[in-house]
Amino acid sequence: MRIDLKLLKKVDRVLVASVAVIVLAIAGTVWTTLDLGARRDALAEHERELVQKELDAGAVVLPTEEERRAWASQQNLLASRLLPDAEVTQFFSEISRLSRVYRLQDFDIDSEEQVVGEVQRPRPGDELLDQVGIRRYLVFTITFGGGYSNIAQFVQAVGALPRLTEFVSVDFRRSVPEIRVSMVFRVYKAEDVA
């Protein structure tokens, strides 16, 4: 049923308009109340999250000045043990010199640079290297022959070099009159400072 406002008296028109305004006001009030309720709930949730974050932050123990100095010292020690690009040739020379000192025979050395995380399958520990800022390393493969004593002294001398070295594998093969050795180790490299 359609109401034609022209047929209504002026008082009736005012009454219809007033009822329409009241209905719209009630609808607006209901909508505002519902919207305010939702906002109040969201605000309460944010407040709970804020209180939890404040509690979590309060539980954090900041490092003492002594701990910070110890960490800085460890970081400096690590940085001093990483092999700079400028010293790679010198490192090769030192390894070759040690092979002569310990009278190793048929000494052969080869290296390949690797970037942490760029190999097909990351090695266990790559994430730790990344955390301390080590991004590259050289993989050395050395083959040689010698006696047990000379080989042991050579391996010990390589491990004692001032560079961060990780032995990956050492393979011994008995032959006459010496033992043949194939050894793989990593030397971690310093990042170039631009």
Describe this structure as you would to a colleague:
It is a single chain. With 194 residues, this protein is α+β, with helices and mostly antiparallel strands. The protein contains 5 helices and 4 strands, in the order H-H-H-E-H-E-H-E-E. A hairpin with a 4-residue loop joins strand 3 and strand 4. The longest helix has 50 residues, at 10-59. The mean pLDDT is 82.
What's the helix and strand layout?
Layout: H1 10-59, H2 65-81, H3 88-101, E1 105-115, H4 126-131, E2 136-146, H5 148-160, E3 165-174, E4 179-189
Antiparallel strand pairs: 1-2, 2-4, 3-4
Strand residue percentage:
15-25%
Major sheet: arrangement of strands:
1-2-4-3
How many helical stretches? 5
Distance between the termini: 84 Å
Number of strands: 4
Mean pLDDT over all positions:
82
Contiguous runs where pLDDT drops below 50 for at least 5 residues = none
Class of secondary structure makeup? alpha+beta
Radius of gyration: 38 Å
Sheet with most strands:
4 strands, antiparallel
Share of helix, binned: 40-55%
Order of helices and strands: HHHEHEHEE
